[in-house]
Amino acid sequence: MGGRVGGLTSKFYRETRGLKVSGGELVKSGTVLTRRGDRWKPGHNVIGLTLLTAGCEGEVYFTKKRGNYRRAVTLIHIRPLDKVKK
After folding, report:
1. 78 CB neighbour count, 10 Å cutoff
2. In CATH, what class is 20-83?
3. pTM for the model
4. CA 79, 80, 84, 86 torsion-angle sign
5. Domain spans in the chain, listed from the N-terminal domain onward
6. pLDDT digits (tens, 9 = 90+) for 13-31
7. Beta bridge partners of 73
């Protein structure tokens, strides 16, 4: 008697991974920004390693930098609400 009981299969689990927000979007504290991503690294006001969450309320923006072995790494930052231009 093997097999799965409930849950997601690996086919559909892949669809739930990745980036959850876009640049310029306003997010609340605790919002999930990515799931299981090694392409994105935490920047300012972002918490986590592979599951990145917002550390404060604000606007999402991205920057790129050169990582190990000249591989491009995208950093996710959050600009706090008091510094967002209205």
Report:
1. 26
2. mainly beta
3. 0.78
4. positive
5. 20-83
6. 677 788 899 999 999 999 9
7. 65
